[in-house]
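Final report, closing paragraph on structural work. Over the funding period we assembled a curated collection of sequence-structure pairs, and we close with a single example.
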Amino acid sequence: MERVLTFYILSIINAFLSVAGTTGNLLVCFVIYRNEELQTGVNYFILSLSVADFTVCSIAQPLYIYYLNQEWNTRDFETFKLISYIALHSSFLNLLSLTINRLFAIWFPFEYGTIMRGRNIAVIVCIVWVISIVMALVFTSTPLKKPAPYFHLGMLLVFLVAYLKIYCIARKQRHRIVSQFQSVSYNYRVSMVLHDHLTNRTLAILISVSVVLFLPDTWFQLAGSDDYTRFRWSFTTMFMSSFLNPCVYVWRCEKFRVALYKTFGLSRRGRRSKTNFANRKQVNRNNSKGVSLSVNGNIETSAVRVRDVDDVETVL
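Its predicted structure, as stored:
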């Protein structure tokens, strides 16, 4: 009875995640397709990630619900694992490529614009999908599936190391801004650092969600747990990441929300009023600190009084 109740609860949870995740990722793909301003380098990685997450939610997760309510069969599990591994590895590797792309953008900003163009990005995305298929085949049906958990653990560590490097470079940029605040290009630099800061925080949320949700399966594999235990518990957490990724895009990306409203003809009056109210509060707060903002939110160089890094971080 307890086993039946557990499977019933898992089926309900995964059914909700499947429907919501499929809708959310399909919406992301549709909005990027309909809005040319979103068809830029980094958004192609997001598009590929959304396609991978859509595959997880629309194919792998319904299969999981089906097999969850059938008699346990090792051969059926191998079939399910192959399909789900292709989708999950593609989602994980697309997020990893997005992280590496971000690291390359802030580490080598001058070379980034000439290298990360349409054709090169398309090649990278295709390579990611090919590697995902190869990894799924290798880790499912060959003797190499035994070191798979160590490989997955290594991928999680690459995530953490890459973001740590991104954080360190971004912090150095903020320090550099403080020493150059009297230059003519200060306003432009502050706006760029602000954009980078928001992008880095969004990426940190995506990485944190994926690491936390993929870690249980890696732990089960390293602990030598059987396939039945993994099937019952860890796949639900991994599938959940594909549902949460589009939620993070909508929550964190103002440009995407604007495109979403425009695509479906929705009004943004309430949002504008809230944004304007928040901007007025920020202006008053900055004026009390000796920083003057113009109407459009840019910092007026003549009125800036920056004393240390905290002042810049207050603006950011």
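Residues 186-222 form the longest helix (37 residues). DSSP finds eleven helices and no strands in the chain. We thank the funder for supporting this effort.
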